[in-house]
Each structure stands twice: as C-alpha cells, then as structure tokens.
C-alpha cells in the first residue's frame, strides 16, 4: 500500500468514524459505501440486503469459485470519549468496536480488485448490517439477493485489544462463543406499601433466582462443557416508597462454546425460572434477544489464512481456544467454508465497546494485505 493510498484510506476511516450509525440504522453509511463501490467500477453493486447491507461483485468472467470478504457497517449506542479530532458527531453513538476500520480495509481490497480483477471466479465485498445485535448475518443470508452472491468461501476479521499490534490469532475450529440475552419478566400484584401481604411481590423470587442463575454457568475452560451466565440487569417495581412491587425483571446473558451446550443451558435456566415462579404464584414470561450462534472456522479457510500470514511475515498464532465474545459471522458457515482471524490492536489498547476505544489506523494496510493476498491465493 502506497503512502498516498494509506493517507486517503485513513481519511475515509475518520469520515466513517465521525458519522456512526447503530444496528438497523446504517442507511447513510451503506449509501456512502455503495457509492464508493460504484465509483470503483464494481461489476455489480447490491444494496438493501438484509436491511442496509451492501455487496460489491468483482467478476473475472472466468470459471471459478466465489470468495467473499465480509465486514460490518454498524456502530454502538455508547458515547465516545476518545477526544480524537474525528470523534463521533452523533451524541450517544460511536464506532467503539472498530467496524469503521474493518470497512476501510475491505474498501482497500476493492480498490485493488478494481485495478486488477481476479484471474478466476468472483470476489465479493460484503458490508453487513447489524452485527452488534446478532440480527444482521441471518437477515443478510435470508435476503433473496443473497442468491446472487452464493459464496463458496467467506473470510472476515476483528481487531483484538490485548493482542500485540499487527499480530494475528487464528482459531483452528471454534472461534466465538454462542450467546443470547435472556429476559425474565415476573408478574404478581402490587399493593400499598403499608399492606404488602395483600399483593404478590416478585422480590423474594428475584433474590433467590439471581445467585441460582449465576451458578448454572460459572465459566471455566473454553471447551464443549463451558457455560457462563452473567446477570446484566435487574429491576423491581417502580422507584417509589408507597407501593409494594408487583413486577420484576431479570436480564441474564447465557454464553457457551457450542450450540448444543447452549440448548441445554437454556433448558436448565427456563426450568429453574418456571419452577421458582410457579411456587410463588407469579406469572412468568421469558424472551430472548441478541442471539448469536457459535462461530466455527473451517479447516480449509483457516489454512488459507495461516499460509497468507506466513507468506506476508505477519506474526500468527494458531489456537484451539475461542473468544468468549460472540459474532454473527458464524451464520455464513451454514453455506460456505469460512474463517475469521483476530488482528491485534495492541496489548495496552482500550477494550472494545469502551468509550475511549479507537481503531488503530496502522492496522489498515495489514488487514487489507491479508484479505487481498488470501483472495489472490484462491482466485489468482
């Protein structure tokens, strides 16, 4: 990558950073990316995929596989506190996960493909919406336009604070944990605070459930038996001294390495909640949000990435330990060989989703080179 190109791409990253859009609201970001792809002369630009998704196709016109590179469009509903001159101009929202940098890397690959098409098959640049909620990838794949892409192989990456800058970590199989948000709503009957015996308060059941739900999943080694339950929110009644509560909520995140273990953990948690609520005469409703299935790297796709890193002299570590956090990229593995790699943001870099996080611009040429070299390795 030339200094001029890096300067231009860094400016693009900063422009994207200034205008973050959260999951499901990525209209302007998607429009900007789609126009860039058209200006580059992509053979086909698909828009509105699974929401605001964009796909740019670079076709060799020769027989061969379709290889896709996937990145994310969305930001987070978290205020930014970086103090950067290009900081978010949208109150309460920020690119605090690095998706602005991920998009920029994929734009860099598209620039290379515009200058020189692949020798065989097709290269597809995927800009996916709503990764942060887990809704984007399923919607993207379910969209009828996805049939025009039908990739044989898909690659993705995520920057990783705590890993040395520019180093790569690559999982041999399990890459990301499955997770889901469990919302438990307990309904009883309110009463005057002077006569609590005339109501049905969820307080005792909530106090009993919180430690019991925590003991269902206590973490441990990241293997097939791993399960972690994290209480993230609790609400009892209204903030008043005059009413004994009749309503309570518990929000719990369930996390496992495998989808099979997740199904078992869900069953255990639901049985515990229903048993406790029934014994107390409370009504209970359980719903789920932010549902992420486990993400697993395929052997063939992982080998391609490993060989690429070695050829570029990028420090790479193969591991059998997945990341605890979740990714909806695993959805693409349902119809294609796929693999995601972790690109180090620096050992002391602020963590993802923190108000002071900012994507390191030094990673733009590293990630772009890994993507492009992998594409050329397969398609020529």
From TrEMBL:
Origin superkingdom: Bacteria
Cross-referenced InterPro entries: Amidohydrolase, Bact_exopeptidase_dim_dom, Peptidase_M20, Peptidase_M20_dimer
Domain Peptidase M20 dimerisation intervals: 179-274
Cofactor binding note from Swiss-Prot or TrEMBL: The Mn(2+) ion enhances activity.
Keyword Magnesium set for record: no
Keywords: Hydrolase, Manganese, Metal-binding
Annotated binding of Mn(2+), by residue: 97, 99, 132, 158, 353
GO molecular function terms listed in the Swiss-Prot or TrEMBL record: metal ion binding; N-acetyldiaminopimelate deacetylase activity
PANTHER family documented for this protein: CLAN MH, FAMILY M20, PEPTIDASE T-LIKE METALLOPEPTIDASE (PTHR11014:SF169), PEPTIDASE M20 FAMILY MEMBER (PTHR11014)
Entry protein name: N-acetyldiaminopimelate deacetylase
């Amino acid at each position: 990558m030339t200094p001029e190109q890096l300067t231009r791409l860094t400016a693009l990253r900063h422009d994207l950073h200034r205008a973050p859009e959260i999951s499901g609201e990525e209209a302007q970001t998607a429009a900007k990316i789609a126009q860039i792809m058209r200006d580059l002369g992509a053979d086909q630009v698909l828009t509105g995929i699974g929401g605001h998704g964009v796909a740019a196709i670079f076709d060799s016109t020769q027989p061969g596989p379709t290889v896709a590179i996937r990145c994310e469009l969305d930001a987070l509903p978290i205020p930014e506190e970086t103090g950067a001159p290009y900081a978010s101009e949208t109150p309460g929202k920020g690119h605090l996960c690095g998706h602005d940098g991920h998009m920029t890397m994929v734009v860099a690959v598209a620039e290379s493909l515009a200058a020189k098409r692949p020798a065989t098959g097709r290269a597809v640049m995927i800009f996916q919406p709503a990764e942060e909620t887990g809704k984007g990838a399923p919607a993207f794949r379910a969209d009828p336009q996805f049939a025009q892409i039908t990739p044989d192989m898909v690659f993705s990456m995520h920057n990783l604070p705590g890993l040395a800058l520019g180093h790569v970590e690559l999982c041999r199989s399990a890459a990301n944990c499955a997770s889901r948000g469990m919302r438990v709503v307990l309904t009883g009957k309110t009463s005057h605070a002077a006569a609590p015996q005339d109501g049905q308060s969820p307080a005792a059941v909530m106090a009993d459930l919180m430690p019991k739900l925590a003991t269902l999943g206590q973490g441990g080694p990241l293997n097939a038996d791993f399960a972690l339950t994290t209480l993230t929110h609790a609400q009892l009644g209204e903030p008043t001294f005059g009413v004994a509560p009749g309503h309570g909520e518990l929000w719990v995140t369930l996390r496992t390495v495998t989808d099979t273990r997740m199904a078992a953990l869900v069953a255990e948690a639901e049985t515990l909640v229903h048993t406790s609520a029934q014994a107390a005469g409370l009504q209970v409703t359980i719903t789920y949000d932010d549902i992420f299935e486990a993400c697993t790297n395929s052997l063939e796709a992982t080998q391609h990435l490993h060989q690429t890193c070695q050829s570029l002299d990028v420090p790479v570590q193969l591991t059998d330990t997945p990341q605890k956090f979740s990714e909806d990229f695993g959805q693409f593995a349902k119809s294609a060989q796929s693999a995601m790699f972790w690109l180090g943001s620096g050992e002391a870099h602020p963590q993802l989703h923190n108000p002071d996080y900012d994507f390191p611009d030094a990673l733009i040429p590293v990630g772009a080179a890994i993507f492009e070299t992998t594409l050329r390795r397969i398609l020529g």
